[in-house]
């Protein structure tokens, strides 16, 4: 199959019916694999890794903190992509997927912030510090709130999809700007990135492998939640359309 | 285009409320700060640049929900959308009118309020410069927020929720310029960032504002 | 400057209201739109004026030629009648507002604040705006609301003069204005409800 044909095949899932049928088939697999990798990753990480020589057992919160923080950002990126798809190709499923991902992103941001605070207390002696990373996540949280509030406030679903998509685009640019502004504003306490492609800086292997499993678990969980919630949004949208038709028919 | 600007200015002057309201709000917020944090002049002097920037930002926010809502309610926006003037120009001029009636008076009033907060002498110049460079971005970003929420009943609160996160970069760099200026540090870097953000907002955001306005009009 | 509408389908609030609508409007002609409330006359006029995109079909010859007047007149109460009208004249790049004031008997009210006008006078000011746009096609939505009999005659005369100069008018109204022109009943073009199971692609 050529690349163009493959791309066309992908667009077929923009059809709500096809999307529902397919996700219903694959969802059990995603739920199951998310559960397995989360259980394996967390048990492995919590009980079968040594304590850090500096941070003691508190380091183990990394298995929640890092995957949640990753997904908080990835969820916004996914919303950015699906918003663009909606604006360019007008596929309803795309806009609804963005809507479905937002609350998941909020929860991930909250988990990252909360675990960060719990980790920060013993390490830095404070629950909260205006460290650039923490601050950036707080700002990301505000962007999520505005995005969800705009979806909720607008009656007409297509108008809501258009406006939230533009907000997501503009918000992405400003979120990135805020990130650099915050870095400039305060150099922080936060340790360097736990993960990077440059192997020298990474956390030790004993912590690294269970962390990878946890990240995989969070990714799978995110996909499952978004598929599930998009399905719900599609059905809600159908009900709305049916009610509107009924109103017009009478 | 001049016609629209003149009309908006004339409306702002004649309708009373809109013009002085932001200024009065700025004054009151500034006066309330010493009551909240205490009258020690050293403390006030330290926080003055930030408080003045925050006050100016909130005063700007206050008048945003009237920016497009009045034209929406009386049908002017429909008529402007069918006029030869592109909507991108309309929103730019609206933002400019908002800046002239809200932002500029705030810039001019800020030094006097700086006296109330015991702002350090070298800070006055940088406060005015940073506000002069930064407040246009506040108006342009605010116009985008107003365009997003124009069709909504009780859009005011939502408008604040949407606009305030977008104000973060401007506030950080603007207040940084004023703060560094007040203690005699170099201000060029944050000032350049601030100017860059303002220029980019003015150049790009009107397209987004016009796009969402078109969506809201249909 | 002929306005051509081909196989147009339009939606309001995400629900199709009219479909399969075609008509042409030649210079010098008027087209009166009729139909019960809620059928989609306002939506049709807004679509033709370019304020909202059609679901399907084409509108040709409307670009930069239509002056639209909806239910709201876009009048600013703090400004005087002259200032209101002059503003629109400047926006549309035309000059003299005196003929427009005269055509709708507003000359005596020229310096009055628009906020102090009666409902009918405001409406006349809103309609006088059409004259200063200099656009050939007028799209009017219930223009005679709150006008008395003399004012309706004034309006009909203005439309007739506009048609006489080679203009055209698309008017949704229930009053007989005594104009030369066809009547289009949009009732038969009401969109048929689609089958419940048909949700492929969209949600309309």
TrEMBL record, chain A:
Presence of keyword Cell membrane: yes
GO molecular function per UniProt: heme binding; heme transmembrane transporter activity
Top-level taxon in the UniProt lineage: Bacteria
Transmembrane segments: 26-49, 61-88, 100-122, 134-154, 166-186, 206-228
Subcellular location: Cell inner membrane; Membrane
UniProt KW Mitochondrion keyword: no
A GO biological process held by the record: cytochrome complex assembly
Domain Cytochrome c assembly protein residues, every copy: 17-190
A Gene Ontology term for the protein's cellular component: plasma membrane
Topological relation to the membrane, as annotated: Multi-pass membrane protein
Keywords: Cell inner membrane, Cell membrane, Cytochrome c-type biogenesis, Membrane, Transmembrane, Transmembrane helix, Transport
Family: Belongs to the CcmC/CycZ/HelC family.
Function: Required for the export of heme to the periplasm for the biogenesis of c-type cytochromes.
Protein's name according to its UniProt entry: Heme exporter protein C
Organism: Cribrihabitans marinus
Lineage summary: Bacteria, Pseudomonadati, Pseudomonadota, Alphaproteobacteria, Rhodobacterales
Automatic annotation (TrEMBL), chain B:
GO process annotations (BP): cytochrome c biosynthetic process; cytochrome complex assembly
Annotated TM spans: 12-37, 43-64, 96-117, 123-150, 157-178, 190-213
Protein's UniProt keywords contain Cell inner membrane: yes
Stored InterPro entries: Cyt_c_biogenesis_CcmB, Cyt_c_CcmB_bac
Cellular compartments annotated: Cell inner membrane
Gene Ontology cellular component list: plasma membrane
Membrane topology of the entry: Multi-pass membrane protein
The keyword Transmembrane is annotated on this UniProt entry: yes
GO MF, one example: heme transmembrane transporter activity
Key words of the record: Cell inner membrane, Cell membrane, Cytochrome c-type biogenesis, Membrane, Transmembrane, Transmembrane helix, Transport
Pfam families: CcmB
Function, as annotated: Required for the export of heme to the periplasm for the biogenesis of c-type cytochromes.
Family: Belongs to the CcmB/CycW/HelB family.
Record protein name field: Heme exporter protein B
Organism: Cribrihabitans marinus
UniProtKB/TrEMBL annotation, chain C:
ABC transporter domain ranges (all copies): 3-204
Species, as recorded: Cribrihabitans marinus
Alphabetized InterPro entries for the sequence: AAA+_ATPase, ABC_transporter-like_ATP-bd, ABC_transporter-like_CS, ABC_transptr_haem_export_CcmA, P-loop_NTPase
GO MF annotations in UniProt: ATP binding; ATP hydrolysis activity; transmembrane transporter activity
SUPFAM superfamilies cross-referenced by the UniProt entry: P-loop containing nucleoside triphosphate hydrolases
Protein's recorded name: Heme exporter protein A
Alphabetic keyword roster: ATP-binding, Cytochrome c-type biogenesis, Membrane, Nucleotide-binding, Translocase, Transport
Example of a GO biological process term: cytochrome complex assembly
SMART domains: AAA (SM00382)
Superkingdom of this protein's organism: Bacteria
Listed Pfam families: ABC_tran
């Amino acid at each position: 199959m050529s690349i163009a044909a493959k791309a066309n095949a992908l667009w077929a899932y923009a059809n709500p019916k096809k999307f529902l049928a397919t996700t219903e088939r694959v969802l059990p697999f995603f739920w199951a694999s998310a559960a397995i990798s989360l259980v394996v990753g967390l048990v492995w990480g919590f009980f079968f890794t040594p304590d850090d020589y500096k941070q003691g057992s508190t380091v183990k919160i990394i298995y929640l903190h890092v995957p949640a923080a990753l997904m908080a950002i990835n969820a916004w990126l996914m919303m950015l992509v699906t918003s663009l798809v909606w604006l360019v190709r007008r596929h309803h499923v795309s806009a609804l997927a963005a809507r479905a991902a937002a609350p998941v992103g909020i929860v991930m941001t909250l988990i990252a912030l909360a675990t960060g605070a719990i980790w920060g207390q013993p390490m830095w002696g404070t629950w909260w510090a205006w460290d650039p990373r923490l601050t950036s996540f707080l700002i990301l949280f505000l962007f999520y709130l505005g995005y969800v509030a705009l979806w909720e406030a607008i009656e007409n679903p297509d108008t809501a999809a258009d406006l939230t998509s533009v907000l997501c685009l503009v918000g992405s640019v400003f979120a990135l700007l805020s990130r650099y502004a915050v870095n400039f504003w305060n150099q922080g306490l936060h340790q360097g990135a736990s993960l990077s492609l440059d192997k020298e800086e990474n956390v030790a292997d004993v912590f690294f492998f269970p962390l990878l499993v946890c990240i995989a678990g969070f990714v799978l969980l995110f996909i499952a939640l978004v598929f599930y919630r998009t399905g719900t949004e599609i059905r809600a949208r159908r009900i709305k359309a049916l009610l509107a038709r009924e109103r017009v028919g009478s | 285009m001049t016609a629209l600007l003149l009309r908006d200015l004339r409306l702002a002057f004649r309708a009373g409320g809109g013009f002085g309201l932001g200024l009065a709000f700025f004054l009151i917020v500034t006066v309330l700060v010493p009551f909240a944090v205490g009258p020690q002049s050293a403390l006030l002097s330290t926080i003055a640049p930030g408080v003045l920037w925050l006050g100016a930002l909130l005063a700007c926010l206050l008048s945003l929900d009237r920016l497009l809502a009045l034209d929406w309610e009386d049908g002017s926006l429909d008529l402007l959308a069918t006029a030869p003037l592109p909507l991108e120009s309309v929103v730019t001029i609206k933002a400019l009118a908002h800046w002239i009636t809200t932002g500029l008076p705030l810039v001019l009033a800020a030094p006097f309020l700086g006296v109330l907060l015991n702002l350090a002498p070298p800070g006055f110049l940088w406060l005015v410069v940073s506000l002069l460079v930064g407040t246009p971005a506040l108006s342009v970003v605010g116009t985008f927020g107003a365009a997003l929420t124009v069709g909504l009943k009780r859009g005011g609160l939502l408008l604040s929720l949407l606009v305030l996160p977008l104000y973060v970069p401007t506030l950080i760099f603007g207040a940084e310029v004023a703060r560094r200026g007040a203690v005699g540090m170099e201000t060029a870097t944050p000032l350049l960032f601030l100017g860059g953000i303002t220029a980019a907002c003015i150049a790009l955001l009107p397209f987004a504002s016009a796009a969402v306005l078109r969506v809201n009009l249909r | 400057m002929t306005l051509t509408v081909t196989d147009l389908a339009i939606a309001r609030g995400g629900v199709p209201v009219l479909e399969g609508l075609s008509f042409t409007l030649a210079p010098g002609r008027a087209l009166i739109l009729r139909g019960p409330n809620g059928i989609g006359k306002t939506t049709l006029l807004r679509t033709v004026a370019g304020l909202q995109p059609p679901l399907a079909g084409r509108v040709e010859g409307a670009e930069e030629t239509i002056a639209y007047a909806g239910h709201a007149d876009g009048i600013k109460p703090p400004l005087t009648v002259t200032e209101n009208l002059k503003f629109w004249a400047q926006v549309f790049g035309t000059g003299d507002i005196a003929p427009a004031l005269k055509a709708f008997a507003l000359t005596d009210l020229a310096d009055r604040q628009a906020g102090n006008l009666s409902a009918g006078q405001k409406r006349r000011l809103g309609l006088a705006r059409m004259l200063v746009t200099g656009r050939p096609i007028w799209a009017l939505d219930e223009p005679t609301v709150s006008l008395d009999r003399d004012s309706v005659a004034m309006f009909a005369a203005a439309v007739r003069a506009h048609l006489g100069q080679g203009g055209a008018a698309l008017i949704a109204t229930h009053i007989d204005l005594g104009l030369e022109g066809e009547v289009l009943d949009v009732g038969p073009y009401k969109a048929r409800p689609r089958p419940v199971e048909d949700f492929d692609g969209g949600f309309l």
